[in-house]
Amino acid sequence: MKRMTAVVVCAGVAMLMTGVARAEGDATGKEPGKGRKHGDFLERFQKADANKDGKLSLDEFKTMSKKPDAEAEKMFKTADTDNDGFLTPAELKAARQKHAAQKHENAAPSAQPVEKK
């Protein structure tokens, strides 16, 4: 009975947190669970694309990300799925979605009951 109660409570908390996240997204004008608006992302991408070739080099990405160089390089290598040394809008979008999903997984409370020893 205690395990069932713990599972129900965890599920309820997860649903509550999802509702709060959606409400916060709506209040900020952002899509729920999306962070920045897609238009903002494209504007930032185009602004960082200094030579206007439709893709970002590592240096252009560092300018866009505003992260320390080592962190930006790691992010760049992870996002550059075809390993051509450039990031396309599609590669960046996929990397952002993957990051958001991982962040969501890490933030969600576990529905598994914790056993006492």
Could you explain the architecture of this structure?
The protein is an all-alpha fold. It folds into two domains: 1-34; 36-108, EF-hand (Recoverin, domain 1), CATH 1.10.238. It has helices at residues 2-28, 38-48, 58-65, 69-79, 89-107. It is elongated, with a radius of gyration of 19 Å.
Write the CATH fold name of the largest domain.
Recoverin, domain 1
Largest beta sheet, briefly? none
Structural category: mainly alpha
Q: Number of helical segments?
A: 5
CATH architecture of the largest domain: Orthogonal Bundle
Query: Average pLDDT value?
Result: 73
Rg on CA atoms, Å: 19 Å
Quickly count the domains: 2
Shape: elongated
Question: How many beta-strand segments?
Answer: 0
Written as H for each helix and E for each strand, in order along the chain, the element string is: HHHHH
CATH classification class of the largest domain: Mainly Alpha
Which percent band covers the strand fraction?
under 5%
Helix content: 55-70%
CATH evolutionary superfamily of the largest domain: EF-hand
Unreliable sequence segments: 3-34
N-to-C span = 17 Å
Helices and strands, with pairings:
Layout (H helix, E strand, L loop, with lengths): L1 H27 L9 H11 L9 H8 L3 H11 L9 H19 L10
Helix pairs in contact: 2-3, 3-4
